[in-house]
Design a protein that fits this description.
The protein has 311 residues and is of the alpha/beta class. The site of phosphoric acid mono(formamide)ester (CP) has 10 residues, from helix 3.
């Protein structure tokens, strides 16, 4: 059974295959007759989409991916309030009950680190970690890496700035794990002292021989970077509002910052964005974040198919 729990579970050959298939889905979705044909591929299968935390992109793109492959979707959003979790039911019991309803795969977003792994222990079908608190977001990392490949034609030998709230940002953590799979990448972590990348990731990078630095100033990293992966401050996981305001002010990518970036660099963001990337820079060709979000559906189509290959 192919659970998707951590980004580091994927090796390079699986990533290559997922990206090739995502390319094919992108091409076929643009042709109406081909798009219709895709709905025959996994007809009869059902995705259960179980989200205990808010989501726009992950939830909707998983639902769209499943439906474009001909699957049905059974969904609960805001399960923290609108499921029997509010009555005190454990995640483990919920998963055991859901498995009685014949899902073929369950996409789970939860507010606790390790929730997907716990769910996988009780599930009779594959669990996809669609974000577990400040833990990981492996499917986001897949689409992020896919976007880098699409934009630059390679995932080797790159200097990648990953910045923002790195202490709570699960997308940044998952991306760092995946970048470590490729050759000669260098990562520049940019974060305020209070929100630096966790030691678990840094230890992993050292173990894999991946060069990285930690900076507290964005300006020093911009001109060297092939990719700037910017993230929001995770207000929902932080303390008083005043702290966020201060952080927002320090970590904005505006026109001045864009001027320092390489002409072919790629500016990415997992979204939602707040003040850290103002809309004025959206027209710049280096601003990839909406194309990046669009890639989420193709990569999730590819991933669902990969999961079913093991049936
Ligand atoms: N990037 C991402 O996970 O967005 P959502 O929270 O909207 O799913």
């Amino acid at each position: 059974m192919r659970h998707v729990l951590y980004s580091q579970q994927f090796d390079r050959s699986i990533l290559d295959a997922l990206f090739r298939r995502a390319d094919e889905f992108r091409r076929r979705m643009a042709v109406p007759s081909e798009k219709a044909a895709l709905t025959q591929l996994h007809r009869g299968k059902t995705l259960f989409s179980v989200f205990y935390e808010p989501s726009t992109r992950t939830r909707m793109s998983f639902g769209a991916a499943a439906q474009h492959l001909g699957m049905s979707v059974v969904a609960t959003e805001n399960a923290r309030e609108f499921s029997s979790a509010i009555k005190g039911e454990s995640l483990e019991d919920t998963i055991r009950v859901l498995c009685e309803y014949y899902p073929d795969v369950i996409a789970l977003r939860h507010y606790e680190i390790g929730a997907a792994e716990r769910a996988a222990r009780y599930s009779t079908v594959p669990i996809i970690n669609a974000g577990d608190g400040a833990g990981q977001h492996p499917t986001q990392a897949l689409l992020d890496l896919y976007t880098i490949h699409q934009a630059l034609g390679t995932i080797d030998g790159l200097t990648v700035t990953i910045g923002g709230d790195l202490a709570n940002g699960r997308t940044a953590r998952s991306l760092a794990y995946l970048l470590a799979k490729f050759d000669a990448n260098r990562i520049l972590f940019v974060a305020p002292d209070s929100l630096r990348m966790g030691n678990d990731i840094k230890d992993h990078l050292r173990e894999k021989g991946v060069a990285f630095t930690e900076e507290s100033r964005l300006e020093d990293a911009l001109s060297e970077s092939d990719v700037v992966y910017w993230t929001r401050v995770q207000k929902e996981r932080l303390g008083p509002e005043s702290v966020h305001e201060e952080l927002h002010a320090q970590f904005v990518i505006g026109e001045a910052q864009l001027d320092r970036m390489k002409p072919q660099a790629v500016l990415m963001h997992p979204l939602p964005r707040l003040e850290e990337i103002p809309p004025e820079i959206d027209p710049d060709p280096r601003a990839w974040y909406f194309r990046q979000a669009g890639n989420g559906m193709f990569i999730r189509m590819s991933l669902l198919e990969w999961i079913f290959e093991s049936d």
